Every structure is written in C-alpha cells, then in structure tokens.
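It would be a great kindness if you could assist me with a short task in structural biology. The matter concerns a single protein, recorded as an amino acid sequence and a row of backbone structure tokens. Kindly check, if you would, that the fold set down in the tokens agrees with what the sequence suggests. Thank you for your consideration; the sequence and its tokens are set out here:
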Amino acid sequence: MKKKTTLLLLSILFASIGLYAQKLVACENYDSAGKASGIYSTWDIKPAGSYIYLHYSQPQVLGPGAWILQIDRDSTGTGKFTVYKKITLKPLKGKHLTVSDVFFSGKGKYKCTVRLNGQVKATTTITVDVKKDIDNVEMDDDDASDTYYYEDSEILFCKSVDKQGNTTGEASTFDLGTTKQITLTVYTENDGNPFKTKEVYATIYKNNKVVKEYDLDITPEWTYFSFKHTFTEPGEYVVDLYNGKDVFINSATLTITK
C-alpha cells in the first residue's frame, strides 16, 4: 500500500511540474529568441479594439497534433463565460513556443486556454478595459516605444516594389528555379502611419538559426520600406523586424521550395 501511495504522489508531482513548465501569457512584446516581455493581467484597449499577443511556451519542442487556442469571455462580470474565439495554432517546426496576435474588441474578463488534441496545456485569464483616450498617448518623436503602434503593420514577400509602394509577384511561397537561388523583396507597410524610427533591425531565421541580419536606415516619416535578400536553399524562413529601440514591429513566414 505504501509503495502504491508513493507512486501516486510521484505521478501527481511530475504532472504538476509539467503543467507548471507550460506557460500561456498575454504580453506586449517578445524578442528574437521568443522571450515574452510586458506581461500583464489587465489591459487597456482602444474603443475600436486592439491586438494583444498570447504567448505559449514549454520546455520541449511543440509536437504534431491539433493545437487550439480557445478564448472565452465574461462580459457581464457574473462569472459566466461564453466562447469568444477559437484559433487553430500552427507551431513552426522545431519551436518550443507559439505566439498569436489576437484582436480584442470589448471589455470583460477573458479566459484563454491552449489545448493539444483536446488536452489542456496551459491557461491564463486577463481583464480588458476600454480607454477612450488611448489614441491620444504621446509617442516618441524618434522611435515608437510600444508594439501597439505597429499592430496594423504587414510584411509581404514579392519580386519587386516600385517607388509608390506597389508590389509585383506577391506570394508566401517561392521556388528556387533552375538557378538554385532567388532574390526577393521584403516589403513592410504600417497601414499609412509613419514608422517613427530611424533604424530597423531585420533578422532572417531558418530552423531557429540566424541566416542574415540587416541594419536598415529609414526616415521616421516613411509609411513603408523594403529590402532585398537572396535565398539559396529551400526551407521555411521567418523574418523578424524591430525598430531602433528594439520594439517589435512584426514577423512573417516564407517558404522556399526546390
């Protein structure tokens, strides 16, 4: 009987350790290594809604299966939650974390849960409030100091872009072709808003390893910019962009085939 009790206690202990190691947080930023920052349980959003990062991580590489992020909302304060959103997560190969940029459009309490094949991996609860004056917050004249400023930005991959910002040959998958290499334009726009930075740091990854880093000089008033990179190997690539104050701008994934 003592042996069975000991085994039971050890099983509970190991299960508790595993659950503790898996973490889901709401954050305003994360670095190129995937470390979350600006983690809060209470958030202020714009009247029209705002994006918040939901960052899930675990010690092991995320394995295959049905990864689902479910968000339930209590908008009345009565403790009664109803389904707000269900998001299918697509973890990158070899990653131990996944991040979703989720749009929240109203105040209330939100319970966020990550499941793998129906099993709960991690959960967190955040409180969201609406602030009418959030659009009037002063921004740094040189560099935008908050990821929220770039929440409507977008990264596109294309063959070329003209002086007016019109792209040609836009896609998310490209073939190396007979020359075994392809030069693409990485185009980024900020939904008509100035980037408010003089520098942009661009990093290209493949299999969690840095392929190339670029330090780009831009004008703070620019609403879009681009740079070129030549790909010589097939695979899945990730491009991360940060401004001059290491504030995250955006990230995008590109597939190169043979």
Q: What stands out?
A: Residues 1-19, 134-141 have pLDDT under 50 and may be disordered. The CA atoms of residues 43 and 108 lie 10 Å apart. The first strand starts at residue 23 and ends at 30.
